[in-house]
Amino acid sequence: MANPPPARPTAAKPPLANPLCVALDVASVDAGLALGRAVAPHAGALKLGLEFVMACGPQGVAAVAGLGLPLFLDVKLHDIPNTVAGAIRALAPLAPAVLNVHAAGGPAMLTAARAACPPATRLVAVTVLTSLDNADLAATGVSGGAAPQVRRLAGLARACGLDGVVCSAGEVAALASDWPDGLFVVPGIRPRGAPARDQKRVTGPAEALAAGAGLLVVGRPITAAPDPSAAARAIAAEIAAARPQAG
Fold first, then answer.
1. CATH architecture, domain defined by 20-246
2. Separation between Cα atoms, residue 18 and residue 34, nearest integer Å
3. pTM assigned to the model
4. What is the pLDDT of residues 74-85, one digit of tens each?
5. Among 9, 23, 37, residue whose Cα is nearest residue 215
6. Which positions are catalytic?
7. Which residue ranges make up each domain of the chain?
8. Alpha carbon distance 124, 68 (integer Å)
């Protein structure tokens, strides 16, 4: 971009003290609240994605917000600029700590999203979904692989004044060298021994933190465990042990 917009102020957005963000990918308020209560002692934030938001609506989001943890609204907005800006204004009363859009929406959409986003909400852009690998990208017409595409889209997000990006841990270190104050949200986190399932670019909590990740999104390894509270506690302990090495 020849004339990127000015950077957004960051004073109102201190770092999250605990980077563990548990994904409540369920379709009922009761299930979301039960899981949220179980993991709350060990989590730094809760993620609500499209499944929950579509099934439970703003009232469901507000109910989970009542648990007192910061919320990451993982809605991945991607539409024309006016529509995305309107959607962000509609979500603003829910006061999410983190909200995301697709970087592939382009500079006009990203700039409109930034302008509509409340100052206290971190706005991050999805680069390449962690369920995609190089072959998947090639099938959609993106050549060169995931890493160059992530870097291109992250540069666009930064130029448009966003607070960070969603990417895999394998891409964080390269991005952080260009964007030292960016927030890097890393999904596809799998603790030792956990299956990858439909994720393809995955890593462990310690590796993600060492690379510079700021928010680690963990779903099924916690929420599908026989004891979600114990699973969250174990991952939180793994994160705590890694943080000194992560700097």
1. Alpha-Beta Barrel (3.20)
2. 21
3. 0.88
4. 999 999 999 999
5. 23
6. 76
7. 20-246
8. 22
